[in-house]
Design a protein that fits this description.
Order of helices and strands: EHEHEEEHEEHEEEEHEHEEHH
Strand content: 15-25%
Shape: globular
Strand order of the largest sheet: 4-3-2-1-5-6-8-12
Number of strands: 14
Largest sheet: 8 strands, mixed
């Protein structure tokens, strides 16, 4: 019997995941707040809904979106001055809807920005106080899900997403100086989709996982290579070592038995170079 998943926030990652799960026999529902995205999403075969989560409530066209076995929450904090207050308020609205409908399994897509830069390795439980307001907002949102006992939540903290039409060389094109010695914490979208699928198939709930490629080249290594194979200017790198973190994903690999498709972000760049097309 097929299972149903509702993806609250069918963006770049959520849409790719939905299309992959459709091929595996899942019934997939996806949400968007954009008319253009709505039309594009419908064409994939994903059952499409309009859902807008606000601090005061949820605007939705059909409540059947929340009739699901698993709810995947995948929308980021918006860049506003009050994000630390508004984003957790939005999540509170989602939590109330989950309890009202009686959904039992939730997967929350978070970010490694929940970690404080400690100039070393960080594992689950080493969060500290994140530098960015968005990281603090995500950490508060995680807690709202985890503290609930009416349903089970697994939290996935992804590193920076790369792959396909996201050209990493463009991330630094407008920077006059880049701290080249700082390590990167990145993950390819194919790994994200594969990790989520394994969690769903193996029914791994009530966990918090970091998810970033196990190898962490420096910004100078990664972005210089990305720029060269994209025929873009190589940014100016400095030897300054800014505060940094190295995200450890050992728990994910041990608990799921997961093997990364791209063990290093450099593997992706080498693949692009070998295929002789521009990213």
């Amino acid at each position: 019997m097929s299972k149903t998943i509702s993806i609250l926030g069918s963006g770049w990652l959520g849409t790719a995941l939905g299309k992959s799960l459709l091929r595996k026999g899942w019934d997939v529902k996806g949400s968007t707040t954009s008319t253009q995205t709505y039309n594009d999403l419908e064409m994939t075969g994903i059952s499409t809904f309009y859902v807008k989560v606000q601090p005061q409530g949820i605007r939705i066209d059909y409540n059947s979106f929340f009739n699901t076995d698993v709810l995947l929450v995948s929308f980021p904090p918006t860049r506003t001055s009050c994000v630390e207050e508004s984003f957790p308020q939005k999540i509170e609205q989602v939590v109330q809807k989950i309890k009202e409908i009686g959904i039992k399994k939730v997967l929350f897509i978070s970010s490694t920005s929940v970690y404080e830069s400690r100039n070393g390795e960080v594992k689950e439980g080493n969060e500290g106080r994140p530098e960015k307001a968005s990281g603090r907002a995500l950490l508060s949102a995680e807690k709202l899900f985890i503290q609930e006992d009416a349903f089970q939540t697994t939290v996935l903290r992804f590193g920076g997403l790369i792959g396909y039409d996201r050209n990493p060389a463009r991330f630094v094109q407008h920077r006059t100086e880049v701290a080249g010695a700082v390590p990167v914490n990145l993950i390819h979208r194919d790994d994200c989709v594969s990790i989520i699928t394994e969690i769903l198939e193996k029914e791994v709930w009530g966990e918090v996982f970091n998810a970033a490629s196990p190898e962490h080249p420096t910004k100078a290594e990664f972005y210089a290579k990305a720029a060269k194979i994209s025929d873009l200017p190589v940014p100016a790198f400095t030897g300054t070592l800014e505060p940094f973190k190295i995200v450890n994903s050992d728990k994910l690999r041990e608990k799921l038995g997961y093997q990364f498709i791209y063990n290093s972000p450099m593997d992706y760049l080498r693949e692009v170079e070998e295929w002789a097309y521009r990213i």
